[in-house]
Amino acid sequence: MLDMLQYTFMQRAFIAGALIAIVCSVIGVFLVLRKMSLIGDGLAHIAFAGIAGGMFFGVYPLLSALAFTVLSALGIQRLKDMKVHGDAAIAIFFSFGLAIGITLISMSGGFGMDLFSYLFGSILAVNETDLAFIGALCAATIALVWLFYKELFYITFDEDSARAGGLPVEGLNTMLIVLTAIAVVVSMRVVGILLVSSYIVLPASTALLVSRGFRDTILLAAGLALISTVIGLTAAYYLDAAAGGAIVLVLVGAFASALAYHLLGQKKREK
């Protein structure tokens, strides 16, 4: 394993992967428990428009994707506040983002290799600018989760009581969906747009099967995501495979193992 770390691009990939694993898994626990798992997939497809727009207008793609995804996340939250069903609000912006992305791509002459790296992820594509951008966003996300941990915990399990207790529930919901948008954007370079939601949902779902407390769930989800990232990137390097696919396959394997363990324990308790 040490021989691949002599390459700068692999060092950047492992650093970026570790940061993304922590952010996505932590945000994922809140989303899964609130039955908002699909929002990651919706925002990932919305980010496609931001990437296409950045390439079309000559703007740094991750920055344009961040701006478009955050604005769309705020729009989704606004529609939900206006009593539009959450899944319908996501579908509306999902369709809008894809339509913009496809239109801009067709106007620019089709798909390029750099666009494919965003769709499917590429460890070779993580450059120093990407790493600095990812690091800053991940640090800001973790800081906000840490600062508002108790409030986010409260609205995750009992939003009505939190509102009655005077917590700014709407503001916290908006912050959570914006943090989700950030997590989606920073993940695209490693796992790709098409697999971002897996990075958010699988570690959290796996941890929830075997952990007993909320804090333990977050720590276990982060640990699983980190280990899966290391294993997936290593396998991708030696097998000459797509890093995003390798990471997600490891996460799926971990979930299957946790599910088998959970079912086995359930059968023993029934006896």
Folded structure, characterized:
This protein is mainly α and 271 residues long. The protein has one domain (2-194): ABC transporter involved in vitamin B12 uptake, BtuC, CATH 1.10.3470. Helices cover 83% and strands 0% of the residues. The chain has 12 helices and no strands. The chain has helices spanning 8-33, 38-57, 61-81, 86-108, 113-120, 128-147, 149-157, 159-164, 169-191, 196-210, 214-239, 243-270. α1 packs antiparallel against α9 and α3 (61-81) runs antiparallel to α4 (86-108). The protein is globular. It starts with 7 loop residues before the first helix and ends with a helix. The mean pLDDT is 87.
Report the principal-axis shape: globular
Any idea of the CATH class? Answer: Mainly Alpha
Largest sheet: none
As a percent range, the share of strand residues is: under 5%
Element order, helices and strands? HHHHHHHHHHHH
Could you name the CATH topology?
Answer: ABC transporter involved in vitamin B12 uptake, BtuC
The unreliable regions are none
- For the record, give the distance between the C-alpha atoms at the N and C termini, rounded to a whole number: 45 Å
Number of strands: 0
Binned, the helix content reads over 70%
Radius of gyration from CA coordinates:
19 Å
Secondary structural class: mainly alpha
Number of helices: 12
Query: What count of structural domains?
Result: 1
Architecture, according to CATH?
Answer: Orthogonal Bundle
Please state the average pLDDT score: 87
Q: What's the name of the CATH homologous superfamily? A: ABC transporter involved in vitamin B12 uptake, BtuC
